[in-house]
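User
Please review the sequence:
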Amino acid sequence: MDGKTRINIAGKMFLLAPLLLLLLFAVSGCERKSPPQKAPEKAKPVWDGTGEGFRTSRNDRKEIEITLKETKLAAIPEDYDKWGNISFSADGQQVFYKAIKRGKNFIVVNDKTGKFYDAINDLIVFSPDGKRVAYDGKRGGKEYLVIDGKEVKSFDDVAPGPFSPDGHLVACQVEGKEDKKWFIIVSGGEKEIYRSQAFPDTFRYPVFSPDGRLLVFEMGDDKMKIENKKRTVFFLDVSTKKIIKERLYTDYQTGKISFSSDSSRAVYDIQKEGKSFLVLLDFALNVADSTLREERKIELPYAATVNFILSPDGKKIIYIATKEGKQYLVVSPWESPAQGKERGPYEAIASPVFGPDSTTAVYYAMKNGKWRIVVGNKEGGANYDRGGNAPSVFSPDGAKIAWPAMKGGHQDRRMMDGKWFMVVSSAGKPAAAKESAAYDMVVTPVFSPDGKYIAYRARTGTMEKAKRFIVIANTETGKVIKEGHVSDEVWPPVWSADGKAVAYGARIGRELWWKVEKL
């Protein structure tokens, strides 16, 4: 048996910003032969592009093989002064970490040591499959862009940005003489293939569209200015290296970009003088180029709006709006976004997300000081003192949802004194929820391909004396059927395609393992 199974991965990078918040609560960190099996066609487990775990998507890109054989990938030597920033590749065959020895900084892949630098920034970026790495290394007064251990180029300042969904391109922020700043795109970790025009002050991190054809970035001159602050949003066709859209905003605050799954539509918000606007873009994507067919700027009937999200099919927009001190979840059609339906009011709303079929909006809402999950216009039980740390997770078929929630503690995130549960319910009946066993923290839920089980990270004990492990629970009853090996850190779980095993990265002392829990 080759100990591997196939699953698909994708690169919807823009959806990942909420998952990064989970790092604040990190619970971290058989040789029989059978042919690889494929996950169900409707929605397959895919790597989420951050090193944080897997999610479901219908926009499949390529196949990788996940190792289902327990393997010790590396042992951190005793003479290393410091080490951290650990990340496992999606296939479980590589582990990366940053180390310092006698004042020298370097990246280690498994047990192979990279080049030495005087400093390496903690912003270390990985490709969607977790197998490629980019970082900036400082040595001898120069700063190098390093990709896969190779020095691509030196700059006055460089910050590697995201990889493209296919992992071939890297978009970076760079700085040259006279504090001029720009973006570059590096191909294959070898050469620069695009350089933006220079701007004097600020820049927004570049974002690739899900299909990798477009790169959106923003630059401006608003540093230390009170009036006439200028920001320009650019849409670059990566294949032709042409700017297909450039929009200047003066004294506006611009928001995050959101794409449809097929990259044919995009939306972002702008704010000015107490007014909120949406900018909607409709693209014609083809092999030759990407052309902008339509652009609309729509004023919204709210002064304060946040968290604009375009549905996967591009037909709906959701966002949080504040009116008379209360918050509403607004669901709007693409054709008329100013005519949305309000859901609320609530004291607070957090982490809205669309279901995989684009028909249902799911979010956390607070009323009378208690949190509950809301699916469409159906409320779950108002039983929780904290929630909303990350978006709800859907089963591959979209029929079930899971979310972490806390009882008996403070709203203050610094007061980790309550008990946490992984809560699972039918998407159609959020009030009929099942809770797993209580732990001191639970994060990163992942459904099995058939939706019958859920795996997640759990912690017991204080952060200083914590026991961390993977939990597997039945989604119908909430009952825990297995707790994995206790480790010092554990990374998000990955299901095998047949739903019979869970694999994950773990640190046990100074040993870095790829572990497997079988049902």
Observations:
- Confidence is low (pLDDT under 50) at residues 1-62.
- DSSP finds no helices and 47 strands in the chain.
- The radius of gyration is 23 Å.
- The first strand starts at residue 4 and ends at 9.
